[in-house]
Amino acid sequence: MNKLKIPIMGFTEEQETFRNEVRQFIKSEKETFESQVDSWLSGYSPEFSQKLGKKGWIGMTWPKQYGGKERSSLERYIVIEELLAAGAPIAAHWFADRQTGPLFLKFGTDEQKEFFLPKIAEGTCYFSIGLSEPNAGSDLAAISTKAERTENGWVLNGMKIWTSGAHLSDYMIVLCRTSPKKPDRKHEGLSQLVVDLSSPGVTIRPIKYLTGEEHFNEVFFESVIIPEENIVGQEGNGWKQSMAELAYERSGPERILSTFPLLEELIGTLRENKDVQGMGESMKLLSQLYSLRHMSIGIAQLLEEGADVNTTAALVKDMGTKFEKNVAEVARLIIASHPSMTSDVRFEKLLAQSILHGPGFTLRGGTTEILRGIVTKGVVAE
Amino acid sequence: MNKLKIPIMGFTEEQETFRNEVRQFIKSEKETFESQVDSWLSGYSPEFSQKLGKKGWIGMTWPKQYGGKERSSLERYIVIEELLAAGAPIAAHWFADRQTGPLFLKFGTDEQKEFFLPKIAEGTCYFSIGLSEPNAGSDLAAISTKAERTENGWVLNGMKIWTSGAHLSDYMIVLCRTSPKKPDRKHEGLSQLVVDLSSPGVTIRPIKYLTGEEHFNEVFFESVIIPEENIVGQEGNGWKQSMAELAYERSGPERILSTFPLLEELIGTLRENKDVQGMGESMKLLSQLYSLRHMSIGIAQLLEEGADVNTTAALVKDMGTKFEKNVAEVARLIIASHPSMTSDVRFEKLLAQSILHGPGFTLRGGTTEILRGIVTKGVVAE
Amino acid sequence: MSDMQEIILDSTNKMFKSLCSKELIDQLEEGIFAEELWSVLVESGITSVGVPESLGGTGGDYNDALHILQLYGRFSVPLPLSETLMVQWLLADHRVPASREIFTLSVNLKNKIEIEETTKGYSIRGKAVHVPWARHAKSLLVLVNFEGASKVALLPLEQAGVEYNSNLAGEPSDTVNFESIDVENIFLEDVEEEKFRMKVTNLGGLIKTAMMSGAMEALLELSVLYSKEREQFGRPLHRLQAIQQHIAVLSGETVASVTIANKAIQAFGKGMVDHEIAAAKLKLSESAGKVTEIAHQLHGAIGVTHEHRLNQVTRRLWAWRDEFGNENYWADQLAEKVMSSNKESLWEMITDRPVTKVPLGEGIK
Amino acid sequence: MSDMQEIILDSTNKMFKSLCSKELIDQLEEGIFAEELWSVLVESGITSVGVPESLGGTGGDYNDALHILQLYGRFSVPLPLSETLMVQWLLADHRVPASREIFTLSVNLKNKIEIEETTKGYSIRGKAVHVPWARHAKSLLVLVNFEGASKVALLPLEQAGVEYNSNLAGEPSDTVNFESIDVENIFLEDVEEEKFRMKVTNLGGLIKTAMMSGAMEALLELSVLYSKEREQFGRPLHRLQAIQQHIAVLSGETVASVTIANKAIQAFGKGMVDHEIAAAKLKLSESAGKVTEIAHQLHGAIGVTHEHRLNQVTRRLWAWRDEFGNENYWADQLAEKVMSSNKESLWEMITDRPVTKVPLGEGIK
């Protein structure tokens, strides 16, 4: 089962030193933010993003000429997991750093790279991703948002839904149809456009999450004029480009650590209370976390080497997001409490966040069923 | 959701008295058998069956003219659950009592009833059920065993597989094709025949279970001559008759209590050891057992009233057999031990039986997937 | 179920169905109390079901009331019905007449409320936490210290300070502050503290069990409906094998939960409860996590929006499973019963018909 | 993985594949010892991998040996390889030369073995339970009492009484009886009892972890193969959505288990182990229940027959998960480490690079 092989990675002495540097920075910032669950989606703080930009920790693997620091992806991994473990507010620049930057690097024009990448790396330019539509969730071929080429550039009409953070972003990468659908080649004819969200004709309507918070949106495009040069990559190649992004985003630490602040609080409380029994009951979580983390790190290495991680990345997402949910289920049983978003007891608040955000963990980035289909196809194909 | 409604039943004073009588009898027999897991399939003892026959507890709901006692199905329920809870050896007469007797009562000729039922009720005449074939497991329409009508009676050719206890039974109810399959009516043309397993042309080859024990068999029929009058019910109606049997057998206490002897031993040991923590950890099993038992009893009542229990019975089988497995998984964690079929420590032996028999629980009588399909169809249809 | 009960439940069902809309439930979280629906409940007599007619109550028995609360759970009614009923029942044991007011109660161990006798009456000082619906209630039933002894008291809330807080469902769960408040007269009675706590916990556990079983029925209905209406790859969802697995497990957990809840309600109604409440609240709290997860998985993105009715049900299940004892609490209670049982075997315990009289009805002692 | 290791593992893989047939494994339960294969293992040097060449061993490191044991688990090899290796390693710490014999060991708390000095040598009296492969082994490494002190001894088994018993997989797990047996000389050394127990438990836990991870790989392979070969309703099984769910979960548990096992092996190989063994054996023991259930569910009736290879793998997983500590045992060990850690936060513990030197290699103390 070669597709399932994952190398065991260790960090070097220098990387450990770097980790310490990151950790010290976060500690020094502790007073400026409230640690929270799911902070890569809910923790919006342009100030904090800019501080990270100053440290050189956004777009840090990118070429220096575009504001990057040309560091290794394992170093980036260290930064991300330290921030997530601390529940730091990193939602503002998240998608730009994780997805849009790499997209420009791979497919963008020189002009796009020169214009966008330095701003992203500064922590001042935020992107969101426009994929889903009401009738195109799991099946992106059904996308009906379309852009027509005119003399003034593209004219975009349609809508996107479930776009995280669009109401707080500057731009959106919109996957849309640029030539008519052919029955036998339904994934062709889609392209990715960079849309300035302040353009006339763009309407953003937040959708309330079940907590009442506003994380995602419906975004409407009514004859939005987009400069011709805002297409990313090849016209008609948008589906393939988007799929590559999706695979890339499945095995990161954000699929494992979303509820880590709760786990940290749980273990801390148990240590304080010297609750040996409760600690024993928590340890299954810990062993799961160990194995998921080593899987995730090993895959990060494989990605760097350019290996095919489609199958294993889907596994991490499937198991990791279940683990994130499970943290809440175990925690609530070990320490009985009154979970509440408005509680001033830290454990109760983090627990409430974890329970209420839970359903989202296994939905975003591909549902359980779809991930499992991907895994089985990969495993059976060998 | 009317199909999911289950009445809450209680037992009357007389029924409780009767339960006590059954319990006293089992206690008085304790020295004659070794309590075991899954005793309705593995506990073969003609002596014990005959004793039960003498007590009037086989075929006890049947008319007196056929050796029955005309007692209520809740009284039968009491007998069965007391026997199962004690792990008593009741495999010999099990299928005859549960399935074949009711089949004859419903569809049999007077001659069949007069011939077979009194013997079954005496505990001296044992049946097994011939349904599955190598290529007809979940899909009984694919049955290829066939009987041809000749001057001498039916001539049976083919084979059955996974037949429990055939090597220890006197007869088998064989579902076979008596007229050719029509593409649009593939469940027609099947009939049920009573086959004397000592007939020439019958070969029984035990299949070893993973423990090495012999519970089920392959049974081959080579031109076996079967008297014309051995057909049960209507010619061509065999599939419907068999399906009705299957639904009937899904919600009985044998879908909940197969591993009860282990649970009893677990709780007993924890009480003895005053292990409060272990006891707490076992209690989820107990609450599951309570709810399953009340479901099962309620459905027994509905069956008596002639209500449609197809959906709820499938639920009991699905959840009950999972519960039976779960008993072993919980028990092994609460009391660490060396489970072994050859151990002389009772807990270890019962645990080994439960673990090793476990995979069978969810396979027999319809796999998980099939049961869940039945449930969903039932629920969605309302 | 008696014919009478069927009629009562049928009309309650209709009433909730027509009056308790999704929007009304949402309004709770916007701080708007459903005055109108509350008036209807009061007028219909539902707020004093189980209080004898001789005390001005509606009559009927606990069985009726608990099945009404099952419907309450099914429709996510945004009102302090269970709290008001509980307090009225506990007061009725003391021959206190039925009332049309809103009551609430708290037996939290962290509460420290002191009552002192003054020249004009009593002075109340202290704090009660996690008090459901306190901001809307007239009075609070609570354990207090009075002259060094534990008592149970019914305290007026008009002058109390109330800090707003809410549970996972957005139901009020407030902190109440009495800053040396003077009152002329209050209900104040002796109480055996531990026994009273157990009584309230049992009653509360059973009530939440009833409510949760109703909520699970709603969850199953919503899910089945969605699987029939929604299509994927050109087929209704329920035709997909993975969805069938979900619906079947959801059905199973729901039926098992409703069955054990009904068993506990029936036993309580007959005044014969042994392990039933513990086993039922344990099972319901445990199942709540499973059914909510499945229902959300099945509903996909639409299900996690505030817009969709689903979250009103799942958030209540998440809140209620931890209220009046989570599954571990009740597992420990049940374990204690098994440990100290005088029966020889587990099987005898399971098949034993409960004979322990429920303490409720003996008056608050 | 070094090139050298790759070559060793590749040839071991080939050897097991060609010599360790389903029938050979079955013969174990019929009481037939796989003499021939054992000779091949001895000749190839596998039975003393990890024992330095200076002591007559094959050389190589623990890392090599543990990956060989992974293959052992994958092919369900019916031989006392892990026991022999463990004893040889423990003896090598005492500079005892490598041997071609079969060894076994027991650190069971229930053992009570007394050694007395006699005029001719020593007298052994007592009983050891759950001793793997005792019926086939030459000597037993075990804790004994000698002149009132705990020692570790290597006892000859020729004259000992052996009661046959077996674990869930049908592997020998015998009771050994020494009825005042006289021997001239034995290996007998001082030992810190608790430390020795911990060392053997850690080593045993890691070895079982390696074996189980190999068994899980076999389970996944068998299941995938079956899902490709077998058809239902005219389509290969793996096209059915419910089966896809099974295969995906099976793959996930297997990869997670293999990863954490490899991490523990690597850490141990470097002589730097902190929580790795505990976390790994915990995870593997926990996953064993899940993967065996899924594999059986997927295989249906054919999978529960003695005839099918599946049961050789699942029964070993069921047996091994409880040997050298089940998941609760290791959870408690891990909990203790977390409790007594000098790190401030859990995150610091998780990201800490282990520096604790593994006690193995210090000699049996």
From TrEMBL, chains A, B:
InterPro entries: Acyl-CoA_DH_CS, Acyl-CoA_Oxase/DH_mid-dom, Acyl-CoA_Oxase/DH_mid-dom_sf, AcylCoA_DH/ox_N, AcylCoA_DH/ox_N_sf, AcylCoA_DH/oxidase_NM_dom_sf, Mycobact_Acyl-CoA_DH. PROSITE patterns: ACYL_COA_DH_1 (PS00072). Keywords: Oxidoreductase. It holds the Pfam family Acyl-CoA_dh_M. Transmembrane segments: none annotated. Residues 129-224 form the Acyl-CoA oxidase/dehydrogenase middle domain. SUPFAM superfamilies: Acyl-CoA dehydrogenase NM domain-like (SSF56645). Residues 12-123 form the Acyl-CoA dehydrogenase/oxidase N-terminal domain. It comes from the Bacteria. PANTHER family: ACYL-COA DEHYDROGENASE, ACYL-COA DEHYDROGENASE FADE34. This is Acyl-CoA dehydrogenase family protein. It comes from Halobacillus shinanisalinarum. The lineage of its organism: Bacteria, Bacillati, Bacillota, Bacilli, Bacillales.
TrEMBL record, chains C, D:
Pfam families: Acyl-CoA_dh_1, Acyl-CoA_dh_N. Residues 5-81 form the Acyl-CoA dehydrogenase/oxidase N-terminal domain. It comes from the Bacteria. Its cofactor is FAD. InterPro entries: AcylCo_DH-like_C, AcylCo_DH/oxidase_C, AcylCoA_DH/ox_N, AcylCoA_DH/ox_N_sf, AcylCoA_DH/oxidase_NM_dom_sf. Belongs to the acyl-CoA dehydrogenase family. This is Acyl-CoA/acyl-ACP dehydrogenase.
